[in-house]
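Bug #2210: token dump truncated for Transposase IS200-like domain-containing protein?
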Amino acid sequence: MRNRPVLFSDDDADALHHAIVAAVREFEYRLSDLVIESTHLHWIVSHDDGMETMVGRLKNRMRQRLGRGRIWTTGYYGRELRNLKGLHDAREYLAQHRGLRMLAGEIVTRQ
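Reproduced locally. Full output below:
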């Protein structure tokens, strides 16, 4: 990581959540899973674009929603989930995060 990460507040996390939901509608993607942590996000999105295009579009819309300058470090880690085992394993990993917002298409509420 070349730049220091930006820390997201709870209000920022809510804004990022709304922004990614709006963006997947705009670009006709399908969001099934979402984690918003204080320094990064995880998501599972079905789409027909290249990975770089999809990530760029979603990151840009979230940045625009927060209305400030740079919020992302350079790059991303992404991988294609090609089978049900890969999807299951990814969801098990996401379910362990405190910032879990959506899992398998269902909104998650944590107390």
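Output looks complete on our side. The mean pLDDT is 91. Marking as cannot-reproduce; reopen if the truncation happens again.
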